Amino acid sequence: MPNVTRLPAPRRPRPEPLFLFDARRPTQAASADMIEQVITHADTAMRMSGGRCKYRVSAQTVERLIAEGRLEASARRLADLTVIWDETEGQVATVRDDARLRDAAARWAEWDALWDEESFAPEPMTRSFAA
User: Fold this and answer.
1) What is the pTM of this model?
2) Rounded distance, CA 48 to CA 43, Å?
3) Which of 70, 82, 65, 69 is nearest to 30 (CA)?
4) For every residue of 6-19, which 3-state class applies, written as one string?
């Protein structure tokens, strides 16, 4: 006969853990117009295998285009997008959005700076223990 008096307590549901980099989907998805602007104004293009090409717009280029009046102020988000174009199909294969990674990196920059100080450098030994 099994011992039923020692059953483990049922597990309570736990909330989702908080990670260092909150890399979930961005709150605002990239629109077709944003993808078209990345392809049009891309200053970085990299050939990939399978007839694909990766397009990105740097933050400096976005700022320059905003200053020239060719883009709106809300277009700063274009620097977070990476568009992979399939040249054989003639269409967009993938769009990657790094907005949350950029935000997380900015949140943790001060924390990371704590370990960059010279005060944590080891001090040279001034006398020998063998003496």
Assistant:
1) 0.60
2) 16
3) 82
4) HCCCCCCCCCCCCC
